[in-house]
């Protein structure tokens, strides 16, 4: 049963479920599968590989998909946004960095502006730049973020931006997470790690298997892997990944790793070889809730049905006690 919210109305979708534009993992095939199932898929523009981006936009075919960028990559490669806007996408998502320099071009091109934020200050800045949708990302999420948890951040953003559609992100992997997000005042969810573990996700099978075997207790927030690949983010950002042999060996020795060029070269070789004892699998705390690798469309339907069932049955499951 579809759940109608301001998000579904704004994007013209059936289910309030967005695919996180995970760098290289959210390709055209995965984004299209999510959109065709009634959610909204976004291709991960990430750090800005123009040839990859063009290929994946073509691969999405006639599916209504958006594109998401790490905003700093667009500052270095302004042609990337022009390339996307020529395709007239329904929406463009910006994460991290300054929104204002790119907002006008996105809005003028007829796309909705989705801004991922991690603090109330960022939410206010995004609203001032004309954000149509705010993605309130908690630190439970895989990949880069800051420190606030999803549960308190989402309603705080809802209260701070009453006229803007808010989407919850971080730690959401099933219909329970969708129902909880809606109760917090959000209009939908953005999901990354759970879609990483689907048939269509453009990730190595070894990485997907590690997600299936992991628990949230075995994820860490760290800058180790950014240091190893020589792509260090500014404070206060750090990334959540699955622990592995590399993190166990180098955690607490970040300054030493920064000076170790031989280890950086070894890390690059491990990434190329899909050696995830060394290379990072970017995943969030919701790995506990992942036990299979379904087609993305099946997952969208499963999550939506579970959320609808929970919301419809809430009055039967919980009984308000009569005052004595």
Class per helix and strand makeup = alpha/beta
Give the strand line-up of the largest sheet. Answer: 1-9-8-6-5-4-3-2
- Helicity level: 40-55%
Strand content: 15-25%
Q: What is the CATH architecture assignment of the largest domain?
A: Alpha-Beta Barrel
Radius of gyration: 19 Å
Describe the global form.
Answer: globular
Poorly predicted spans: none
**Broad CATH class of the largest domain:** Alpha Beta
Beta strand count: 11
Helical element count?
A: 16
Series of H and E elements: HEHEHEHHEHEHEEHEHEHHEHEHHHH
CATH fold naming of the largest domain: TIM Barrel
The main pleated sheet reads as: 8 strands, parallel
Averaged pLDDT, please?
Answer: 94
How many discrete structural domains? 2
Distance between the termini: 38 Å
Describe it for me?
The chain has helices at 6-11, 28-36, 50-59, 71-76, 79-85, 100-108, 120-128, 150-160, 175-183, 193-196, 205-213, 224-228, 245-250, 254-258, 261-272, 296-317, and strands at residues 17-19, 42-46, 66-70, 91-95, 112-117, 133-137, 143-145, 165-169, 188-191, 219-222, 238-242. Helix 6 (100-108) links the parallel strand 4 and strand 5. The protein is built from 16 helices and 11 strands. The chain is globular and about 65 Å long. The chain folds into 2 domains: 6-202 and 291-309, Aldolase class I (TIM Barrel, Alpha-Beta Barrel), CATH 3.20.20.70; 205-272, no CATH class. The mean pLDDT is 94. The chain has 324 residues and is an alpha/beta fold.
């Amino acid at each position: 049963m579809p759940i109608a919210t301001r998000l579904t109305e704004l994007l013209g979708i059936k289910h309030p479920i967005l695919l996180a534009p995970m760098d290289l993992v959210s390709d055209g095939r995965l984004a299209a599968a999510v959109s065709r199932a009634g959610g909204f898929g976004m291709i991960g523009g990430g750090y800005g590989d123009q040839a990859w981006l063009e290929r994946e936009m073509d691969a999405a075919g006639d599916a209504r998909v958006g594109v998401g960028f790490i905003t700093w990559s667009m500052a270095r490669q302004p042609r990337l946004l022009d390339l996307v806007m020529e395709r007239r996408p329904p929406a463009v998502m910006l994460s991290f960095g300054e929104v204002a320099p790119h907002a006008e071009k996105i809005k003028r091109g007829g796309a909705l502006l989705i801004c991922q934020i991690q603090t109330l200050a960022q939410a206010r800045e995004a609203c001032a730049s004309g954000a149509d949708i705010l993605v309130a990302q908690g630190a439970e999420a895989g990949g880069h973020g800051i420190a606030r948890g999803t549960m308190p951040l989402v309603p705080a953003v809802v209260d701070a931006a009453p006229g803007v559609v808010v989407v919850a992100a971080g730690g959401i992997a099933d219909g329970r997470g969708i129902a909880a997000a809606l109760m917090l005042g959000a209009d939908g969810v953005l999901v990354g790690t759970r879609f990483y573990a689907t048939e269509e996700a453009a990730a190595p099978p070894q990485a997907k298997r590690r997600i299936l075997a992991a628990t949230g207790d075995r994820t860490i927030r760290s800058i180790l892997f950014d240091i190893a690949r020589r792509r260090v983010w500014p404070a206060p950002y750090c990334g959540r990944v699955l622990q592995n042999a590399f993190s166990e060996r180098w955690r607490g020795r970040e300054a030493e790793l920064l000076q170790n060029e031989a280890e950086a070269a070894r890390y690059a070789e491990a990434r190329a070889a899909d050696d995830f004892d060394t290379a990072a699998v970017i995943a969030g705390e919701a790995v506990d809730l992942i036990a299979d690798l379904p087609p993305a469309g099946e997952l969208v339907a499963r999550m939506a049905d579970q959320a609808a069932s929970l919301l419809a049955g809430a009055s039967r499951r919980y009984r308000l006690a009569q005052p004595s």
